[in-house]
Amino acid sequence: MTVHHWKDQAKGFAACARVARSRVVILTNDFEVCAKFWLFDYFPELLRADRHIFPSLARFEDAFGVIESIAVPIPEDCRDGFLGAYWKRPRAYLDRMVRDSISTFSKVGNIDSRLAQLEQDILSGEWDRRYSSLQNLSALDLGYRIVIANKRAAL
Question: Which of 86, 87, 141, 142 has the fewest CB atoms inside 10 Å of its own CB, making it the most exposed?
Answer without folding.
Answer: 141
